[in-house]
Fold this protein.
Amino acid sequence: MPKSPEQRSYLVLENYIGGKFVSCRNHIDSYDPSTGEVYCKVPDSGKEEVDAAVAAAREAFPDWSARSPQQRGEVLNKLADLIEANMEEFIQAESKDQGKTVTFARTVDIPRSAYNFRFFASSVLHHTTDCSQMDHMGCLNYTVRCPVGVAGLISPWNLPLYLLTWKIAPAIATGNTVVAKPSEMTSVTAWMMCKLMGQAGVPPGVVNIVFGTGPRAGDALVSHPEVPLISFTGSSATARRITERSAPYCKKLSLELGGKNPAIIFADADLEQCIETTVRSSFSNQGEICLCTSRIYVERSIYSEFLERFVAAARKWKTGAPSDPNNHNGALISKEHLEKVRSFVALAKSEGAVIHCGEGVDCLDLPEPNKSGYFMPPTVISGISDRSRVMQEEIFGPVTCVCPFDTEDEAVARGNGVRYGLSATVWSRDVGRVHRLAQRLQAGLVWTNCWLVRDLNLPFGGMKHSGVGREGGKDSYHFFTEVKSITIKH
């Protein structure tokens, strides 16, 4: 017999403030997306907890910011060592909490989380500042960079530890202290990392993690007068709220938001490589990556062949139990999100589009424990207008739309015809063409004949409604520091 809710033992998380775990009076249910069952209780923190975390971060700031970059880097590297030493536990926890496959957590999320600390421990050592001479005035000008203070960091549910560490690492490497709020839907790996902080030599108060919802914990953090800087990854709607709430305090903001990313495929593309990569770019991590391809424009002369081969490849992209190594996709994050994604497919159908595979076409054969999980097979749609909400709004699920185009100018105009501008992919062997398109596409990242190849030194971020600011080696260094110009007359 299934256990009643009273009999079940839940994982109960606690906030991490000033180097100690602090219990919370109220909790939020967190679900295992692959079964649809509550398995974890997450603190429902508010102003009181955020105030305590900010106070701890302020107290820790003078000592931490006075350390050399090398000393801070040693702590970051030790934290990376400890994540790697506990790799398997982190992998299993991330899969269970988020719904993604164990394989994806093993190959992407957790290795990258450790690497984020290593990367910034090293990169922070290699920046130089500016100097200029004004000999005719007997003056020398130079710049210095100083940490800002307490950084407020808010990370999303799609790549939980990966994107949290992408913010914590540069913030503390540059001498700031932090108050971080992970998504209330995926808080477990952040809590597990807190257990390693003391062992890694992170002084109390340097990293504080407060769990809870955006409207309560997030709002208290972004409107706190003593948090001068906010880094947020998530939806454009939430970003608007953050901008409004932080505006009275003139905070520095870094906002990494949604995407409605086009792939533009020309007749001279290497179709085999293109189809294999575009299936991956459309459906990886259940389509829950801001960089996923959701609009595919194909030159008309190869459109029919591409569509047939692409649908066949999408059908081979297996969805099911996250623990099964044969599966490419696991479950979507929540029941509400699954319903939202399905509603877009229903809308496309009502507008006369063709659903070639996936939702409503192919049945999933799920193991018994997963029958109530939030699963959806890769779904390919054609025959949809560019003006449709399905083509304009971020769906953030395993859904992509395929359309034919005739000319390069048309492809660019349609590629740019949304309010987002995060990434784009171009498939062609014509060197001149790929350079032209890279220049003309309104996207912060343009990949040619590949997808998601990242050098962390280079800027990451989007144009238009896809965000404000950039992240990466130099960009994160600039964001998490204040520059000061100094003039000496001799």
Remarks:
- Residues 287 and 397 are 4 Å apart (CA to CA).
